[in-house]
TrEMBL record:
Protein known as: Leucine--tRNA ligase, cytoplasmic
Region span, Disordered: 114-134
Organism encoding this protein: Anolis carolinensis
Boundaries of every Leucine--tRNA ligase RagD-binding domain copy: 939-969
Domain of life of the native organism: Eukaryota
Amino acid sequence: MTERKGTAKVDFLKKIEKEIQQKWKDEGAFEVNASDAASQKSNGKYFATFPYPYMNGRLHLGHTFSLSKCEFAVGFQKLKGKACLFPFGLHCTGMPIKACADKLKREMELYGCPPEFPDEEEEEEEDSKEEEVVIKDKAKGKKSKAAAKTGSSKYQWGIMKSLGLSDEEIVKFSEAEHWLDYFPPLAIQDLKSMGLKIDWRRSFVTTDVNPYYDSFVRWQFLTLRERNKIKFGKRYTIYSPKDGQPCMDHDRQTGEGVGPQEYTLIKMKVVEPYPVKLSGLKGKNIFLVAATLRPETMFGQTNCWVRPDMKYIGFETLNGDIFICTQRAARNMSYQGFTKINGVVPVVKELMGEDILGAPLSAPLTSYKVIYTLPMLTIKEDKGTGVVTSVPSDSPDDIAALRDLKKKQPFRAKYGIKDDMVLPFEPVPVIEIPGYGQLSAPMICDELKIQSQNDREKLVEAKERLYLKGFYEGIMLVAEFKGQKIQDVKKIIQKKMVDNGEAMIYMEPEKQVMSRSADECVVALCDQWYLDYGEETWKKQTHECLKNLETFCEETRRNFEATLDWLQEHACSRTYGLGTRLPWDEQWLIESLSDSTIYMAFYTVAHLLQGGNLRGQGESPMRIRANQMSKEVWDYIFFKTAPFPATKIPKAVLDKLKQEFEFWYPVDLRASGKDLVPNHLSYYLYNHVAMWPNQREKWPVSVRANGHLLLNSEKMSKSTGNFLTLSEAVQKFSADGMRLALADAGDTVEDANFMETMADAGILRLYTWVEWVKEMLANWDSLRSGPADTFNDRVFFSEINAGIMKTEQNYEKMMFKEALKTGFFEFQAAKDKYRELAIEGMHRDLVLQFIESQTLLLAPVCPHMCEHVWALLGKTDSIMKASWPVPGPVDEILIRSSQYLTEAAHDLRLRLKNYMAPAKGKKSNKEVPQKPSHCTIYVAKNYPPWQHITLSVLRRHYQTSGGHLPDNKNNLQ
């Protein structure tokens, strides 16, 4: 975007914002206690929460967009007279912080302090681009935030440098605890700078550094275990066969943060005639097994790929079947229950890929009775099984390779591939993707002019374009899944194939993991504690919770339903990282998706326990020690019928905590990105049902999921520079300028778009509005008084009231972009029209009503400027104590009359312009016409006969059908 000419206007806004934020702090504007709220007889309560962000970096604009939904909703509900609570915690549980700290330690051990790293060219380079686009199943795949947020630097030291830290400061981060000291205060500082309505007394950090939160999580898990929600059994984990134990991050030479990746293992049965090299295995069930991330596409299989020069093996499985794949994949499978002896691969045949080319196969789901094994030259041995199933309708790689074979007869001849193994097989429509049709892969390959399977860069681009769009927007075209979204049926199709014996679940590390003993790790089934989300009674009750949950969007509800249908077990324990230890088995830590499901209940009492001390290590306002918070004490606070415990804590004190919980619960709004629906948000529902099974009034009320945030119509990315932190955005656009652009970015679950041009325009709009208010107040005596009864007065009065009503409806539906449109853009336009048309002058009463209404309508989004204007109006109380404006009557006919006059005047101007300036290119000897001095407008008193008859028929149908217009077929009758 173009450089700004100056910063005077944004500096003006930021100066006001700092003054207003200090005013709110001094007044404790957002600190609210249950006892006070109850005594003030408010119009109910409103409790909003946002998933606490992870503390290994600064908050960015994506975080800010999601939490703005809570912020705007709280601002509106506050104006509606409700007691509002918006608390904010800071998450430190899990592996990422510990892994990063330990990585810094290793780098200093290996390379000195400050480290002197080897030249890049001396190191083994990783592929710069991942050729496989993965749609992460965030509930199963355990790729940690450390892996997701480390940026492009190879070394952790470099990543810390990129944050602007000095060598001396970086050394401190080699201790995990320092991260908890450093980033949480910065997060609070950044959040305060945007003017959030947060009760900071209730803020805290997680993990056992906070004894109160640690006690709370232990209570939760003791309760879940009592209620038989937690089991012990086999779960997938990264494992070192050489060491004979799970390989956690601190045990790894490479691959920190890498977790298991789930695949669907497709079983393609070899049918007669067998290839020569397999003829000795007649009588056995032989399968080529392909690992896919896209089971929903199996309806479109046309062939199977192997690499001619790659080594394969056939090995015997637990039930006597023979699986053909690479040795590496078989090694992984042997630790996942595929073979009779754990870790032993019973090889029955060693093969080259060329030995099985042309083998006929029977593949599940496809409409082709027999497909064939064909050569693909780009298959990698370090990923998957070395066997690839081909779906050319939806895979750019597959259509490119298939076209190569079809076009190049010598290529087929080289590998002994007959024409009837290739030429009859055409792509099968399986999925429709908006913009790419029913055969997306052929279309995008044509669009990018991909000539062969060797056009690797173009193929990577093609996959990136298709796969994410396909996952979120693709619609199935086949079988009983026709018309359903991919994200809703992916797991269901996988389960169906597994249940039918056509596929199996297979895991391998997301990327190579090497242990400190130089052993390449596998994924193994190891004993772990897990939450049994598949248990039928629990699942059924969670469905009941979902049935009454407000999701604001049907797509969000469908995503919840699909998740609850397939969700089974979730491992809740780890041996490495930060967090709370399992109370009954302290070798295990509770992982980060499991200690974050009901902490909203902790918010209700945190201020009384911790008093705003993030670590809970100061003096408790209620003089309660953390070691006094026994399970029975927590039960008494959170469970309505629990008896008073044996404790030295006075009953009056515990009753105060109990009162806070009873007043604020349930959570009225949980706002989050849509990517958390399949994991955190579903676990949130499950755990509330488990903890309060007989108190449905404590179950969540609503969940508002939003799409990802684009920046200037492009994906946010540090590597491309298209990235903004929260602090950068506030500095660049002011808090209210940023907030206005966030509200305008989007309301749906589709991707939203933060436009810097919109933020800049917002700065100008806000500045102009404040200046206009000051001008009106300065010239108050010159404004018209007396009766406000002119045509334009009455129109403006109705438009103000209509704007209030529409904006209230939009805020109620959490449609903030629409609320901004009706409550600011259109509202301002109505004022501008009134100012322009009211030749007799604007009426002071209407100007005052407009300013007050505008201030209140915009306050949830831009509270600083609205607080400032509120003070300019002479209001002694903060706008945070004001009420939503009560609209007067709306005369729709009057508004439509005004619109008609405006449109008629516009039409006359256009006619006059065209009359005075004839169209170019027409030769004419006529003189330029004289400008008309007046115009005659003819107004029909009655509709033409044909319109009168039509309206009469429609009116009759409308009245007899209960207020519904008939369809065209009935109209014709």
